[in-house]
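Changelog entry

Holo records now carry the ligand SMILES as an explicit input line rather than a separate metadata file. Below, a converted record for 2-acetamido-2-deoxy-beta-D-glucopyranose, shown in the new format.
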Amino acid sequence: MINDRHSQTSRVDQYTSGPMLYSLLFLSCLMLLGVAALPPPLKTIPSTHPSVYLHGRWDDNVGSWWAGTGFKLNIVTLHNLYINLGEHTTQPSAAVAVSIDGGPYFSVNFTEFSNTVPLGDSILKKDTKAATLVEINVQGWQNNRIEFKSVSVNADASFIPYKPKGRVFQSVGDSLSAGQYLPLGVNQAWPYLVARKLKVESKINAQPGATFIDMESYGNAHGVSYQFWKTEDTGYIWQQDHNYTTAWDVRKEQPKTTDLVIHIGANDASHGVPQEEFIETYLTFLEKLKQASPALQNVYILTPFGWPHEGGVVDYYYEGVYAKVVEEWKRKVGPRSSLRTHLVDCTGWIAFEDVFPDNIHPNVQGHQTIADKLVKVVSAK
Ligand SMILES: *[C@@H]1O[C@H](CO)[C@@H](O)[C@H](O)[C@H]1NC(C)=O
Ligand SMILES: *[C@@H]1O[C@H](CO)[C@@H](O)[C@H](O)[C@H]1NC(C)=O
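Structure line, unchanged by the conversion:
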């Protein structure tokens, strides 16, 4: 024991008595280890920083809910980007869609801790003073929780706050708006495509299987007319760490909704919800949203795309009901209101080749078809 200690001490003495040799040794060690031994310095800002533009529904913990919730960043001299997430992130991962400088979305699985965002080669060719726009949204209507803690970038990069567009589309719907079954989820769904094409901001609250009236339906504890006013989507019921909802205050949203787009009713119809009850729910929802949205200018009420089958047959539901909603709503709002309500007749918009044959939900092409037609309608109004 004693001898060992003594020999250790004498070794240390040797080093201290030869500082020159020691530093040479240290330097060559570093050279052998290469650059990897020195991680590049990073700059980190919290997700609550004003330079992070959050959109969609986030809880108090900056945890995401609802398909399409995400954030935008504008960064100058960007070379490395890491998104740091906390433990309340879907395990093992949550799929997000990433777009760089408005380019096509691609999918990345985000996990707890640090996630490297692939920026592509175009970033290298950029003028070092030019800002890079990074858009990241959760894809899924389930397994869509990211607890967004912070953003890290190369230390010489700088953040410029993203300036949101003035026109803001709020979509409300079910699986046909949430992008269920699509490879990139909601990012390939028509509400998102329309917003991108029209260069407007987008908010989407769409829940597969959910009715509009407030009832239990296909795994959803509530209907969309209820859940819309909550931070959490109906998936909260399956979360051990967050098995509750919190109120969402639409009045506090920035930027404010200017256009409301609703396509809903497939699940109400499948449960046999009577038209009168459906219409009542619709009108109550519109009234509540109008009260909470002082910037609202247009309401688009879409009739069903329907369920297309082989041979040109398309099953529709609630025929004539949406026209009734529009009629009654216009009467309620009155002719002097600046709010404009449009009935969008989607009959014949999609055919069998526009849907997945096994679940008859729109496929990638089907969503594009719907988006193109709706863009035309909106641009003509
Ligand atoms: C993400 O994870 C899912 C499930 O494990 C997998 O099917 C998918 O291919 C992954 N996506 C990417 C982009 O790695
Ligand atoms: C969430 O709470 C409900 C009761 O409100 C319960 O039925 C359900 O099993 C809970 N879910 C989880 C994942 O704990």
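Spot-checked after migration. The pocket of 2-acetamido-2-deoxy-beta-D-glucopyranose (ligand 2) is lined by residues 237-238, 240, 243 (CB under 6 Å). The two ends are 90 Å apart (CA to CA).
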